[in-house]
Amino acid sequence: MFDQSNFKDTQEHSSDLALIIVQLGYKGVYDWLMIASGISNVEFSWNRFDKTGAKEWCRPAYEYDKERGDINQKYITELTTFNYIWGAFENLISEIFTQTQINKKGKINLSLKAMDFNDPPVYGYEYIKSEFSSCFREAVNEHLYIYPEKHFSNEELKIIYQLRNKFAHGDLRFPESMKSNSDSPPIIIELVKASSRIILCYIQGLILLNEKGGVVYSFIDNLFNNPKWEELDDDYLNSSYILSRLHLKKVPEDDFGLTLFYDYYYNLPI
Question: Is 195 helix (H, G, I), strand (E, B) or coil?
């Protein structure tokens, strides 16, 4: 069982990814990710300009507006973060593929083909994908999301592309309230959050495959909580290794036996 607590949060994940890829020349992607990483909360007030006066004499109306405001603030924050991460993804596609390729095949198909229709070579991605699939199935079962296919395994990138389009075209559902008046966010918020994580992994994977053999200053003492490689020379490491691990708080113990500078992504356990 993969330890979910070993994943960095979305904002830190975005920041650390930006820190590494800017060294490889992806300045546009870096800018989008840095904005995503800096979003901590989007200020929002439901019915801010209420003219009815209902909240002054109707306690239920006040409580309803407050609850709806709180949940939509969470939703708007996650959507805002997601949109900047998606912007980073689209910027990357424009960097590594020609406009002719994009026009002919489409951004999603090009991304999938670049990985030979396999998962991104990112440690723990199977667990990340299963968490996304769980959120998505629940959203579909609760009729918060409509997807035409009955089987959607290995469809996460296409699903997220559709989610992004639903938002852009005004078709995405908004949450009404917390589940059973608890602190648990509605599944649609969890789905957006899980989508951000998936897209970050695709950015990692695409750059990893595009930059095999690259070398970066890893900031390894700050990037992970358990570095043990005393023999490293100025923290310069193979970019494939860092890109496959940077979303983790701690690297797997099995990694400590690797010759990190020379082991490329296809030799790494993912």
Answer: helix
